[in-house]
Amino acid sequence: MTGEKILGIEGGGTKTAWALVADGAIVESGKLPPSNLRLTPLDQITKILRVLPREVNRIGVFLAGCATEEDRAALLKLTRSVWPKARIVAGSDRDSGMAACLRERDGIAVNAGTGSSVTGRSGRQIEKAGGWGHILGDAGGGYFVSTRALRSILRAYDLRSGEREFAGTVLRELGLNNFDELVRWAQTADKTEVASLAPLAFRAAQEGDETVQRIIAAGAIALADFAAAVAMRLQLDAPDVRLMGGLFENQKSYVSAFAGALSKKIPGANVAMCEAPPEVGAAWLAAEERSQIAQTEELAGAVQLVSSTEEANPKSANLDRFSAREIVDLFVREEKSVEEGLRQCVDQLARAIELSASAIGNGGRIFYVGAGTSGRLGVLDAAEIPPTFGASSDLFQGIIAGGASALRRSIEGAEDDARAGALAMDERGVKREDLVIGISASGRAAFVMGALRRVREIGAQTIFMTCNASQAGVEATVPAAISSAADTAASTEKMDCDLVINLAVGPEIVTGSTRLKAGTATKVALNIISTGAMVRLGRVRGNLMIDLQPTNKKLRERAVDLVSQLAGCDRDSARSRLERAEWNLREALNEE
Fold it and tell me: Most CB atoms within 10 A, among 154, 235, 311, 583?
């Protein structure tokens, strides 16, 4: 519809996907946390909706769990509270999936992602199969494949038929050491975490694991059975069948397996992939017309910026020809730029220590926000504060784009979603007393910038840490074209930060690999800030950790040494004092 902005929203148990359409093209899109009308608290759904574009004319919102007219009315009421002037249509994610797959045509949509469902239409008649959730249904989805693959590992072990290579792959992926740890992980993992193992199962099947091959075949057959049942109820002899969801999109072998299984039941079925995502189906339904919505490659007028961390390093131009010794020599020489980058930021790092100590002293907390390597380094530094300084686990918090899964593997596109960064600040309950340190080596991770922009709205203090001189050249100012490219791609407006720390380490040895010099400098900088703040707050006596948490043998021996040294007593007396204080080091030191 010319001149109108149409927002399509599709929510489920894995994510909330959205697309903003104008003049027949997607101009903005993204993914946010899950939204199931039955399982997600309504205030959480409201938070998700509130970070989406506000200036829209029409909205199509379709969420999992919206099954009845009462559900639809509740969803409409909730959506109108956010967009009171927009025209809104609401319904189930099955509706938006059908619209994405078939528009107005008759046929069958088969969804296989974390879960699974089959929905068919013939005229006004709608038939459904599957989609009962991961506990009682979802046959053929990622959770189905993963749970059966995990069970097969333990079954093989119980029958003493030897450990399969697949077992080692799963343990390695999860960072676990044995099957007992695997069982404990499975007892607490949510369905999305379990389903994320499905790609490992498909890889094992491709490498010849017959047990997993049978599991995958069973999933494809189950979905084909559902599709055939729906076709029979709709009296569709040669239906169009469209496939959607992560398993079909990422595992072409699954498409072939399903098509083969269905051809035995409905020889004339026309099986193909869905060409549009569900959020586009939601927008199409909101538009109330049959026009095709085209995906634009990138935002019009988007600012293309080349980070200094992306530049080629002339010293490593022939790296692939270096000997092992030459590689080591080059790395050691290049570390000088890390020291120099830190040295140039001494004043800024000192200011960061003061800001951090002041925030904590006033009842605030420190949040590190990053994506990729930057996010992992923030999470790592935050995790080390409680055992080192005896601080509560919420005093320093690390937030990484893509969540906990991004700690172990890359989550594609997670850093590009500014609205997810803003929502993360709301979800963590950032308040005015807190301090948020945004970390982006390139200086342009949208997740980080979206978080910082939201923090400024809240009124909390912000620090921006980057390794890109060209984009952090103006002290305490971040270009909005970087910080909110999804909102104002071509804007020249400035977003103020309380402090910018520019760790100018220059080009990486491996071009663009910011886990190298940029990562080293960032880790050191974070160590300096957190340690300095704790020192300023009295968590260290001399250079000793007087709030050390002696949680293992090594640390208990260190605690004994500390008490012996600071109290001027022998080790036996120090140990007795610690035991009387139940290994509270500070209390043992204060004993008369």
Answer: 583
415 is catalytic: yes
Query: 529 or 39: whose pLDDT is higher?
Result: 529
Strand intervals (E) in 443-545: 461-466, 477-479, 494-496, 499-502, 540-541, 544-545
Q: Are both 72 and 148 inside the same structural domain?
A: no
**Are both 341 and 446 inside the same structural domain?**
yes
Q: Does residue 484 lie in a domain region?
A: yes
Q: What is the CATH number of the domain that holds 345?
A: 3.40.50.10490
Per-residue confidence (pLDDT) for residue 592, from 0 to 100: 57
Which pLDDT score, from 0 to 100, does residue 586 have?
Answer: 85
Which own/partner contact pairs does 334-341 have at CB distance under 8 Å and 24+ positions apart? 334/509, 334/517, 335/517, 335/520, 337/505, 337/506, 337/517, 338/505, 338/517, 338/520, 338/521, 338/524, 340/505, 341/467, 341/503, 341/504, 341/505, 341/506, 341/517, 341/521
* The pairing of beta strand 366-370 with beta strand 396-400: parallel
Q: What is the pLDDT of residues 150-207, one digit of tens each?
A: 999 998 888 876 567 888 899 988 888 888 999 999 998 888 889 989 999 999 999 9
- Structural domain contains residue 106: no
State whether residue 55 is helix, strand or coil.
Answer: coil
| Model confidence pLDDT, tens digit, residues 108-137 | 999 998 889 999 999 889 899 988 877 887
Per the structure block, which two tokens stand in for 540?
């260290």
When pLDDT is cut at 50, 70 and 90, the band that residue 2 belongs to is low
Domain boundary among 262, 295, 328: 295
Dig out the tokens for 235 from the structure. Answer: 């009296």
Write out the residue range of the structural domain in which residue 384 sits: 309-536
Backbone angles phi, psi at 230, to 5 degrees: -65, -45
Q: Which of 127, 335, 384, 427 is catalytic?
A: 384
Phi, psi of 501 (to 5 degrees): -115, 110
CA-to-CA separations, 511 to 48, 90, 303, 517, 522, in angstroms, rounded:
37, 47, 21, 11, 17
| CA separation for the pair 397, 251 (Å, rounded) | 36
365 and 262, same structural domain?
no
Identify the DSSP state of 123. Answer: T
Are both 32 and 131 inside the same structural domain? no
- Asked whether residue 331 falls in the same domain as residue 470, the answer is yes
Is there a single domain that holds both residue 72 and residue 125?
no
The answer to whether position 111 is within a domain reads no
In the predicted structure, residue 482 carries a pLDDT above the cut 70: no
Q: Taken in order 156, 158, 160, 162, is the CA torsion positive or negative? A: positive
Q: Which pLDDT does position 476 carry in this prediction?
A: 55
Catalytic residue flag (residue 384): yes
Domain shared by 549 and 564, yes or no: yes
**pTM of the predicted structure, to 2 decimals:** 0.70
Number of domains in the chain: 4
pLDDT surpasses 60 at 302: no
Catalytic residue among 28, 193, 279, 415: 415
Question: Are residues 167 and 199 located together in one domain of the fold?
Answer: yes
Please report whether residue 101 resides in a domain: no
- Residue 427 pLDDT greater than 50, yes or no: yes
Residue 197: which CATH number? 3.30.420.40
